[in-house]
Amino acid sequence: MSLQEFIQQLLNGLSLGSLYALVAIGYTMVYGILRLINFAHGDIFMVGAYIAFYLVGVFYLPWWLSLPLTLLLTAGVGVLIDRVAYRPLRNEPRISLLITAVGVSFLLENLGLVTVGARQKGFPVPGMMASPVRILGAQVGGVSIWVPLISLAFLLLLLWVIYRTKAGMAMRAVSRDIEATRLMGADVDRIIAFTFAIGSALAAAGGILWSFKYPQINPLMGIYPGWKAFTAAVVGGIGNPTGAMIGGVLIGLVEVLTVAFFPTLSGYRDAFVFSILILFLLLRPTGLLGEPLKEKV
Amino acid sequence: MEPNGGQPLLSLRNVTMQFGGLTALDDFSLELAPGELLGLIGPNGAGKTTVFNVITGQFAPTRGRILFQGRDITGWRPDRVTAAGIARTFQNIRLFGGLSVLENVLVAYHVRLRSGVLGAIFRSRLYRREEEQMRREGMALLERVGLAEVAREEAHGLPYGQQRRLEIARALATHPRLLLLDEPAAGMNPEETRQLMGFIQHIRREFQLTILLIEHDMQLVMGICERIRVLDYGQSIAEGTPEQIQRNPRVIQAYLGQAEADEEGQGARHDVAG
Amino acid sequence: MKSIYKTGLTLAGLALLFLLIGWANGHLNEYYSRVLNTAAIYIVAAVSYNLINGVAGQFSLGPNGFMAIGAYVTTLLILPVSQKQAVWFLQPLVWPLRAYSLPLWLFPVALLAGGAAAALGAFLIGIPALRLRGDYLAIATFGFGEIIFVLANNIIPLTNGPLGIKGIPNLPYLLWVTWGCAVLTVLAVTSLVNSSFGRALKAIREDEVAAEAMGVALFRHKMLALVVSGFFGGIAGGLLAFLVSTISPSAFTFFMTFTLLIIIVLGGLGSTTGAVVTAVIYTVLQELLRVVESPLDLGPVHIPGISGMRMVVISALLIAVMLFYRRGLFGGREFSWDWLWQKWTKRKGTSWNQTAASRS
Ligand SMILES: Nc1ncnc2c1ncn2[C@@H]1O[C@H](COP(=O)(O)OP(=O)(O)O)[C@@H](O)[C@H]1O
Ligand SMILES: [Mg+2]
Question: pTM for this structure?
């Protein structure tokens, strides 16, 4: 493998990983607060991609307007799902919530199939993404530079929200001790809604960037990225946003580099990621940065 | 009777329990002689329940050792601790709500079942005898604690007082030598509390139990405990007879602070209990 | 009611079932016997899935993986050697399997082997997943299903990859086999659930912390439920292979798990009889719902068929049940003769009282 190829692959892994990171945030934050694996999160990623597709490709809105609009609308979808499907089940056995989440996931996918059809759609990719860039003497595709950079910007913004704003502080308080936060008079439901909004907006950003990288979109596009992002969240330590970012990048790199170095194994690509998941559950269930959760008794 | 007469049944040696940055229990030691009934009191958040949780293996202590009948049980899994002879109740009642009262008790007998899974599926002779035996014992136990009439009802439908009683009965079904009761009188009116006091003394005699009792209700603790230990902010601040404790200035101070806090937070605390 | 009557009634019910199957075997066309077979297979799969999800309360997403293992193992053991040569024409099948097969009359051995292999799979995935509190079982079993899917697609010398395996021999009296397995599964699972072990599993479902404090070893009991569930899942997979006579990885995607999830939720999580009844209802409903997807001509109005509409309806139904009717058909309870007897006598009792009241 030439240096040029290696750099390209490294950047590929990095951009894929940063996308996983964006999606993993939503999983990890919701899990941190509700102990819910939001199975529908990967599909929200898909919804984000489609909203952008329609805004840009059908209504011809410019990207500077479409991007924030997509994030906003997708955040709304996430909040709506929480309000309608999850909130009524907050005090029920957790398995009810999980089953409902699986149902929402299937509903989104099949609504997608029914409304926009199963056919792949070509995503409108801005020119900046398509033009090649020179880096370290190697020529690489624009996406592999821009995607990780834009993702990084979003992730930094998120860290700022979590650690520097009042809303972020409230979110962290809820994830530490939901009952205590409620007793202190905080509107826990609103904080949870805010969490869904942030997670969904980031998933939408992930969906858009993903579609720049792989510009064919379909209603089932969220399934695998979703599960891999969840794996990233577990690897990073579920409940920990920084961990989710690290986990995402790690999973992306591992996935791309193994296939690059062992092309014969490319068929096993997905099995590989899930094996990492199971390995982590076996050897380090708290992930890289997570703390063991001690349920209060 | 006791092979080694002076040996304590349970001893905690310098136990510390930390949750992240919070030290819930700080270098805590305790000895419990066979047959004793010790009261563990202290303001809310003092670390009393945490004492139970480290004894029963819910959490492994950060530091320190726990010995039961001379055996080191530090860090054992809860089910093994139970099998070794320690049973507990929970501050917030944790019954198997959807199961019947009798079934709640039968679950506690399961650990002593000798039949294997196949024996149970194919209803081997041994299994049938064991099941029969369990049911008989379970009904007898319910009889003794006065729950026989409701044996077939679902546990979550019972009135509060009976739920507390069932939780104790369920703990008794594991054949414990040591019983840990976590605020059994919480949410009871004075009359129910008085009944409960009688009940605790009754089972103590009848089942020859050693009891460690966490209680908020001073009347109950002072009424039935020979010895009382006081916790505050994870540390032991006093130990003695009820009279000594009542006069101890540190205890009074700890509880005064609590009383003030309670006045403000009364409504909230009731919400938690309900 | 006396237990001797109850046993009698159960036996009578079974006899009736077998009479029906005996009749169906000779009289039904291929389409209807296929529906009946499918119903029986869904019963096996759903009742075993309900054991881990509904009875023990541990959210597994693994049945598609277990069924896949069962189907492939059964097929590899029973497919005639000549057919194996025809199927694996690009790369040969791995050795002992290439040269040997079981004769068809040993199909129970093949089915049991499939079940055992699936149980082993369940055991292996249970080791990392069941030691942990929380919902790790869901993701680990999902990952397991995906890994099985990827392996089935890629290990061509064993599975023939995406092309799948064709020409699985027909079992004569398949209806007897599928329904026989359904009855045995229901009996075995019910017996387990009603035993001391079943009580321990329900205790875990109701309150894991309390169950452990009562001496129930969590890992061992969850593992028991998962392995038994995996075993019968494998049997269901093997039966499916005989029914459809062609298997490929795509038959065992997550969609299969979703279907079973619907069935046990509609039946009332934790209710074995509920799972049985809804397995049958679902099989029929699935056929009826094909209507939604086919174009509809209402005189002048023409509604084009919308593919996928069926799944929209079904997933919306799942959410609606969870939100508004969580107890499902049987509310976690079991059908019992006592219950029927009580209903019957109560109805008679009230009507008698009403007449008495209206007279006075
Ligand atoms: N699982 C846990 N995780 C984090 N903090 C805990 C946990 N259990 C108890 N604590 C904390 O430890 C302290 C002591 O709690 P506890 O033993 O329940 O007090 P008490 O029973 O005396 O009211 C409290 O501040 C409580 O919030
Ligand atoms: Mg307490």
Answer: 0.90
